[in-house]
Amino acid sequence: MEDAVKNRKAFTHNNNFPLSGSDEERKIFNHLQEGFKEQFQKIFPDKLAPRTVVIVPSFTLDRDILSKVTGVMQYEQRMLCLLMLLRMPLTKLIYITSEPVPESIIDYYLHLLPGITGDHARRRLTLLSCFDASPKSLTQKILERPRLLERIKQQITDVSNTHLTCFNITPLEKTLAVRLGIPLFGTDPDKFYEGSKSGARKTFRECNVNLADGFEDLHTRADIIDAIIKLKRKNPALRKAVIKINDGFSGDGNAIFRYPELTADDVNEKNIDAALQNLSPVAKDVSKELFFEKFNLMGGVVEEFLEGKIKTSPSVQCVINPDKTIDIVSTHDQLLGGEDGQIFIGAIFPADKAYCVSLASEGKKIAQALSDKGALGRFAIDFLSIQQDDESWKHYAIEINLRKGGTTHPFLMLQFLTNGKYDADTGKFITASGNERFYFASDNVTNENYKGLTPHDLIDIAMFHSLMYDGAAQEGVMFHLIGALSEFGKLGMVCIGSSPQRAKEFYDKALQVLDYECC
After folding, report:
1. Are 482 and 456 in contact (CB under 8 A)?
2. 471: buried, middle or exposed (CB in 10 Å: 19+, 13-18, 0-12)?
3. 3-state secondary structure 136-165
4. pLDDT at 454
5. Do the beta carbons of residue 374 and residue 473 sit within 8 Å?
6. 3-state SS track over 270-322
7. Which residues contact 257 (CB under 8 A, 6 or more apart)?
8. Phi, psi dihedrals of residue 129, rounded to the nearest 5°
9. Beta bridge mates, 479
10. FRET partner for 255 with CA separation of 20 to 30 A, picked from 215, 279, 294, 330?
11. 2-185 adopts what CATH topology?
12. Rounded-to-10 torsion of CA 133, 173, 419, 359
């Protein structure tokens, strides 16, 4: 750890930073990551240990695709769930955003803290902002502001108990970790391929888990056409195929291809090329031209569109720790929308009891393979599960999201608020008091009539109608994405209940109240 401290001083105090992407930067980063193992072993298990967490909720993803996500800038507020770490009395948080987060939203989260006053927690929370609403990634904005970087470093009192956490990890986040002189709880971006759509398919095969028939490492329109033809010739009954950009987000990097009515002899390059004119990108306002441009740049896969009379879209959330141990922290049934069910809307926790245990087992196989390849941190594996004629379930691994995702913040809120744990062997979440809990969560509660509601308005409405989370009963509603409400009429909710039905009732009541107040 002393070497890590010296390293930080050498490269932060005199701003003599190595070039981004250089061998020197890689060497320093690897050294910092090695030191993280000791921090994990000594500090993480001790709730009274002093520590600092630097939180950068940056969506460092393709700008053109992200621009189609309504209120995407406000998605930086989803990681405000990590404010619950302040329940540990010697923990400090440094939270950086593109634009300032209103104090009313911060106060809303802090009032949820069990056993800690809001004032005590607030004194250990540092909020910093770039004051920049441009579409650049947050991490890039921070790196372009040396004075802001210095302010962050000034808040770090001891690098030996400090780490950086981000939404997703790219070379920009790696550079930021090196310039701050602290380790990063996430996978080295040099291993980005392992979390891509193409890399995931190879990992699935290595693990002997089921996956959709298809082809990876494609780049050109000709590659896509060839894959579509091969899939159809192999399965003449196939009606649709899914084309996925390697670094898509929340389904917005996907497109659906519908096979035209053709005889077997007519399934050829000319006819499939013509049919591609009717390609349907999932993201709103993304043209076919832009989709092919991004596919050519980032590469991707083509897969069969899996069919089934009864099918669901569950996921397994995992954590690979610095000591290589693996935690299966949750399973979810994802709620998908859009014409072909490709857009992530929300999630039900835990996944259906009919298959959540077997699902977790498949997820652990994949997590172990990723751990062996050097992955680190929290991530999710998406599946498509189809009920068979004997009522058993067959799970198909679909993709790996080697980052935080839409199921991260709801589960962390539940875990922090109840001090509970998910048991992957039973498929149950049990609170510290021994009670079972469930939730219904959505990131996409949207209504034009909600526009104009401020955070203050929402909190007033929630209190008046008894929608606030009740710490004694360990049930109720938590809101997030609150900053997107006034401008976009959009927010998120995590509705916790003692049964799946009760969790859904909280959600339905919240919608009824909002619709009533905004009619």
Report:
1. no
2. middle
3. CCHHHHHHCCHHHHHHHHHCCCCHHHEEEE
4. 94
5. no
6. HHHHHHHHHCEECCCCCCHHHHHHHHHHHCEEEEECCCCCCEECEEEEEEECC
7. 228, 240, 241, 242, 243, 275, 276, 279, 280, 302
8. -140, 150
9. 493
10. 330
11. Rossmann fold (3.40.50)
12. 110
Q: What is the pLDDT of residues 286-323, one digit of tens each?
A: 788 888 988 999 999 999 999 988 999 999 999 999 99
What are phi and psi for residue 257, nearest 5 degrees? Answer: -105, 130
Element (H, E) at 371: helix 356-372
Place of tokens 């401008």: 487
- Report the side by side order of strands in the sheet with 51-56: 125-129, 91-97, 51-56, 162-166
SS3 for 202?
Answer: helix
pLDDT of residue 47: 93
Q: Are 241 and 229 in contact (CB under 8 A)?
A: no
Buried b (16+ CB within 10 A) or exposed e, 62-89: beebbebbebbbbbbbbbbbbbbbbbbe
pLDDT of residue 10: 45
Angle CA(56)–CA(59)–CA(65) in degrees, nearest 5?
170
Tell if the pTM clears 0.85, that is, is over it.
Answer: yes
d(CA 193, CA 246): 9
- Asked whether the beta carbons of 89 and 197 are under 8 A apart, the reply is no
| Tokens found for residue 88 | 């540990």
N-terminal to C-terminal alpha carbon distance within the chain: 59
Please, what is the average pLDDT of the chain?
A: 91
Q: Indicate the CATH number of 311-518 among 3.30.470.20, 3.40.50.300, 3.30.450.40, 3.30.460.10.
A: 3.30.470.20
Which tokens sit at 428?
């149950």
How is the chain split into domains, by residue range? Answer: 2-185, 213-304, 311-518
Spatial distance between the Cα atoms of 447 and 440, rounded to a whole number of angstroms? 19
